[in-house]
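target protein:
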Amino acid sequence: MFGGPVVPANSPHLRKSGSRAVVYDFDEYEGEGGADESLLHSGEVNDSRGGTTPMSATAMMPSPILLWRFKVLLFLIWGCICCKIGWDSVMRMSADKRDLFIYEAFLYFNPLLLATLMVWLWGTNLWFFAQGGVNYSKIFDLDQNHLTHTEIWKCAMWMTVIVPTSMTAYIYLYSRGEVAYAASQPVLLYAAIVMVLIFPFDIFYFSSRYFFLRTLWRIVFPLQAISFADFFLADILTSMVKVFSDLERSVCRMVHRQVATIAWLEADSICGSHSVAIPLVLVLPYVFRLNQCLRQYKDTGEKTALLNALKYSTAVPVIFLSALKYHVLPEQWTNIYRPLWLLSSVVNSSYSFYWDVTRDWDLSGFTRIFKFSKPHMFSYMLYGRRWVYVWVIASNLILRCTWTYKLSAHLRHNYLTVFTIAALEIFRRFQWIFFRVENEWNKMNNKSHMQVSMSEMSNEEEKLLHSMNHNV
């Protein structure tokens, strides 16, 4: 997600995907016309020699705007074809089986759709950082070949094409009685994603994939000092617990060969909605983040790390109290456990909202992210506008409360509502990223300024002592 580890420019681990090496510089946007100027200069030299040269291959290429429009047209045509095939296939099914099958198909593919949404929004975050002059590669300690927002969007585009295509093929094959071929679609898709992530050769953005997997490993096993990238990605994972819970149920059904069947719909089955594995998977990202806070306290001794650990621990009662609905008597749930669940939900939402505003963010001013280095419509709309403060704070509070709804296992059967809330939580995290990264960037700048000031003070003291010794 972020980029790659710090490696030298001649390292064999640099990706060979055809993209240029990225060297981040604050002045890179002032020099965007360098290539055009060199081409112009080359043309002037040729003209001065009095000769004519044949039209270059670059000049014969279509304009980027034309290519972009052509891609958008192909994308729309593809979307219409998938919708048409999917709708016709669903209408071929009997009414009693239709809803159950749509729920099953949705289960296998919706976690990948949510992950695709997160990748699109992450690319948007990087675009804003680049426009605002925020050196995110320094914040996350990325190498010079980290993925740019354009490359992130390219990955998201392929995910947007592949996942719905596989879902359409799944519905089409099942509606025509090809159950075995239909069952292979999600299995092949999941296997392909895993293979791309762990592919050991120097293609498909190898350094970035290695950095991502290494960061995941450090999150699961915090055996060394916690970096900003470590707890930043762990925070994002807490917003994607819906993805992990559905992945667990999907993989469970694949292992037990229940794909494209309705046998798994029994709630008490090993892969059913009452499985104890679901709350365990839901709580894992919060446990990882809690362990990071404890490790941070051990390394630094800061008491705020313990308070942050307490915040993540408040999500545990929300998850497990809700799961008790399937394992206690209805009267016990109504009279005892549901009031406790509501209380724990209020505590978790309130604490998380307080921490977002007062600790993770610094809303004293939008110093860089929304103040672009070049005039832009978004810069005018967002920078220094009071409505941005109001929107961010209010939406964060509302979405914090609705996210508690998703953590509730006894409400997971409302899959469309839960999917919408999960998508909104990803959007909340998208907003959170802006202010969290800006806050870290400001801290790094203040720290560097303090170091420079201390260095200047020490130099002045040395000069003063040298002058006194000389006078003596």
